[in-house]
Design brief:
220 residues, six-stranded antiparallel β-barrel, alpha+beta, Elongation Factor Tu (Ef-tu), domain 3, 5 helices, 12 strands
Length: 220
């Protein structure tokens, strides 16, 4: 589990990837010092497992599922990547709960200046959009951001100068792809309500459920 607060920018040294998976080697200044084999680290929002660490770098395996769902296969040598180690019970939850399980890939559609920061507009597939709400949370390349505006096929986020400086978002260009992960709480709520609605419409009534109480109370 992660928070979406990026610890540092790393750099892709090498990628050895095929359709069956592979390995990434990433250089970094700080977080490698406390890494051990088996640790979880988010690379551009993708939860990976450390297989080697030392001398200012670490390696992590990448599964075929991760290659299919994320933009990791499109990374180029020397490209900056967002890095965050897994949350501990002693950590502050400065962002929101991020699993590192990317839902889909979006693309950067527009950038405009806004005060000292910038507003980024991303396109996103329906499977992501159906979970987004204005002022809700979304992880973009592992960065915890707040949705400032919803559009028919995408969303906007307002980004402060600090985030532009400490993440790879400030280096993004129009057309770049980004990893998107929606709020896990939204997923569970929607799943529960959809199952409740299905039971409500089915032959067997399900009394005394939270779903029924919400219906009776006029909330649904």
């Amino acid at each position: 589990m992660f928070t979406g607060i990026i610890e540092e920018l790393g750099e892709l040294r090498k990628s050895r990837l095929t359709s069956r998976g592979g390995c990434l080697e990433i250089s970094c200044r700080k977080i490698w010092k406390d890494m051990v084999i088996g640790d979880s680290v988010a690379v551009n929002g993708v939860c990976l497992t450390v297989t080697r660490a030392g001398a200012g770098a670490f390696e992590a395996d990448v599964s075929p599922e991760s290659l299919q769902r994320t933009n990791l296969s499109r990374l180029k040598s020397g490209e900056a990547v967002n890095l965050e180690r897994a949350l501990t019970l002693q950590s502050r939850l400065g962002g929101h709960l991020v699993q590192g399980h990317v839902d889909d890939v979006g693309s950067l559609e527009a950038i405009r200046e806004s005060g000292d920061g910038r507003v980024f507009t991303f396109t996103a597939p329906p499977r992501v959009m159906e979970y987004l709400v204005e002022k809700g949370s979304v992880a973009v390349d592992g960065i915890s951001l707040t949705v400032s505006e919803l559009r028919a096929d995408g969303f906007c986020v307002a980004v402060i100068p600090h985030t532009l400086e400490t993440t790879n978002l400030g280096r993004r260009r129009l057309g770049d792809t980004v990893n998107l992960e929606v709020d896990i709480i939204a997923k569970y709520v929607r799943s529960y309500l959809e199952r409740g609605a299905a039971k409500e419409e089915g032959e067997a009534a399900v009394p005394d459920t939270l779903y029924r109480k919400l219906v009776e109370g006029g909330y649904l």
